[in-house]
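for the writeup, i need someone to sanity check this before i put it in the appendix. the sequnce is what the collaborator sent (i think, or maybe the updated version? ugh). structure was predicted straight from it, no edits. if anything looks off just tell me and ill rerun, i have time this weekend
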Amino acid sequence: MQIEKFEILAYSEAGFKPRQEKLAVEAHLDISVNGNRKYHALRTPGMDAELTVGWCYCQGMIESGEEVREILTTGEGIINLVTEKKTEFPAGEDLPPIDPSGGIRFAPAFLFDLQKDFFTHQQIFSQTGATHAAGLYDVNGSLLIFAEDVGRHNALDKCVGHLLLKNRLREAAFCLLSSRLSLEMANKAYRARIPVLAGVSAPTSLAVQLAKKQGMTLVGFLRPPRFNLYAGEWRLIKE
């Protein structure tokens, strides 16, 4: 269940009036890796396996979906990822920069079209106003995976985990977010080797520094007909 109905009192100039309100569900999830508890998440239920895999990948605990042997649900809100390897890997810091000559170039209108599509998938947000969203698109602008969650990092982990399990993460070229572009979110996109990260809000200083250092294109305040380009301008086709 991702949406729950509550009876509330709504206040206006006419006074209090009882009504039913839809709220986004927030629930606990304990993540273990090979039986060792690693992380406690507050998430919107759904795509728990993908969230677990994506979080472990972005933390450097696995290098590919092929290392996932089992994903076990051992109780309500309890999940255990069993991996082939017992070694933890560096969570991004030892990865090389993303190749700026990788062939991805786009015009501003292309980003606006992606965002228009992105908004059509925010079904939980449209009913509750309480969720973040992440969407991963390929180089042609086709949606690969979309996820909503009360936590912005959870939404991106779900998307990364989904594609990792399907061995399709390399197809992701654009990452769109409904949230601010923090270092944590930029690092997840970098770890997933996604060249272009864009969001409706502002980036932080460390996110911009990471993008510049690691060859990412970073776009903030994506609100047609404008946006701010903070890094990776060589990928933009200037109209």
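The chain has a mean pLDDT of 93. The longest strand covers residues 3-12.
thx in advance!!
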